[in-house]
Each structure stands twice: as structure tokens, then as C-alpha cells.
Amino acid sequence: MKIYGFATYNVTKVLLTAEELGLQYEYIPLNPLEGEQKTEEHLRRHPLGQVPVLEHEGECYIESAAICRYLARISGSRLYQGDARQKAKIDRWVDFSTLHMGRWLATYFFQEIVNSKFFGNEIDQQALAEAGEYLQQQFPVLDAVLAGNEFMAGGGISIADLIGFSYVQIHEVTSVDISAYEHLSRWYSQIRERPSFSAAMSHFPNHQILH
Ligand SMILES: N[C@@H](CCC(=O)N[C@@H](CS)C(=O)NCC(=O)O)C(=O)O
């Protein structure tokens, strides 16, 4: 199994999942500054020329959350476990993380890291202000859930935690501050201490998402 990526949150989700499941894989780094994700070869793997891509048994899989579910399923469903009700809870937090919290954390990442640091463009302060407002509504939701549960969906750790964590990691390299959210911060530190985190990060320069 091969995972194509570069140091960014969508790739972190897949690496963390593979590591938590104890899967053997080869990590193939692509250099986005050289446009390596847009070569004809990579466009055959991903029609939009993006990462992550999982190559497994002759097939290429795209979309990070779908890849996480696939990896969990081929490993006996650990990390995506339970009846329809429990899976709905996992999916709820996968979608909440991706479509709401992650969408606005990604705005910080793009403005402060990609746009400003890498391309030297001015930060769009209006975009950051809008993202900040939404995050102030969304972080307390997760904080309240994590006050009553060790992990997002109740029960053990699931792909929802790994996906949510990968977005929240953006706070480490941007001006986002999660310190006011006690339970969210506890959950974040707990996952960060897992061996899967250091193993996943070992593939990235400076052991961190782009910064
Ligand atoms: N919905 C996709 C998003 C993939 C995506 O946006 N990948 C970014 C990195 S986080 C990328 O490859 N960007 C480079 C480009 O678009 O050229 C997923 O979850 O896998």
C-alpha cells in the first residue's frame, strides 16, 4: 500500500489512521512547490491532481475521509466500529469536523501559511474574521461533547477523532487559539501523545504540517 502526500492536514488524517491500524505502507512525498501533484503521472492517480492518494492492490483511492473509512474497513473496522447508530455518531463528527470546523480552520491555514508565508501575499483579514466567528461557535460544541466523552463519538477512538484532530492541528502553526476550551485541549493533547502521531509526523519535514 502506498500513500502519496505532502505535509498537510488531509494527509495527516490518512497517515494517523494507517498508523493507528498498524498498517504497513510506503509514504511517497510529493513536492507541491515543484507542482509534483499536477504531473500526468499523478493526475492518473487523482483527477484533480491533489493529495492524499492511497494506492492499494492496483486501485487508487481519493478523498481523505473515504480513505480513512476504507482503511478501517479492510482492517476489521477498528476505528469505524459499531451498529448503524454508532456509525452515525462517528459520521456526524467526521462531517462536523470536515464541513464546519475544518472548513474554517482551513481558512486560517490558507491565509496565514499558504497565501502569506509561502506566496508572500497579503492576508485577507475579512476572511480570517469570518472564520474566527464561526470557530467561536463551533469549538464550544466540540468542547461540550468532549466534556462528557473521552473521544468524539463515545466509546473508543474512531476515525472522527483522527480527522478532527488533523484539522485542529492547524492551531499549532497559525494564530488560532484553543486554550480556552479545556476539554478540546485535553482531547487534542491526548491524541498528540499517541505513538501514531509521532509516526505519522515523521514523514513530514520538521515533523509538522507546512509551517
Ligand atoms: N476533499 C479532499 C481535499 C484534497 C485537497 O484539497 N488536497 C490539497 C492538500 S490539503 C491539495 O492536494 N492541494 C494541492 C492542489 O490542489 O494542487 C480530501 O479530503 O482528500
What can you tell me about this protein's structure?
The chain is α+β, with helices and mostly antiparallel strands. It has two domains: 2-78, Glutaredoxin (3-Layer(aba) Sandwich), CATH 3.40.30; 84-195, Glutathione S-transferase Yfyf (Class Pi), Chain A, domain 2, CATH 1.20.1050.10. The chain is built from eight helices and four strands; from the N terminus they run βαβαββαααααα. The protein has helices at residues 9-20, 40-45, 64-73, 84-118, 125-148, 159-168, 182-192, 195-201, and strands spanning 2-5, 26-29, 53-56, 59-62. Strands 2-1-3-4 form a four-stranded mixed β-sheet, with helices on one face. The radius of gyration is 17 Å and the shape is globular. The mean pLDDT is 95. Bound molecules: glutathione. Glutathione binds at residues 8, 10, 32, 37, 49-52, 63-64. The site of glutathione has 10 residues, from loops.
The CATH class of the largest domain is Mainly Alpha
Q: Estimate the global geometry from the Cα principal axes.
A: globular
Percent of residues in beta strands? 5-15%
Our count of domains comes out at: 2
CATH architecture of the largest domain: Up-down Bundle
End-to-end separation in angstroms reads 28 Å
- Series of secondary-structure elements, N-terminal to C-terminal: EHEHEEHHHHHH
Major β-sheet annotation: 4 strands, mixed
Low-confidence stretches: none
How much helix is in the residues? 40-55%
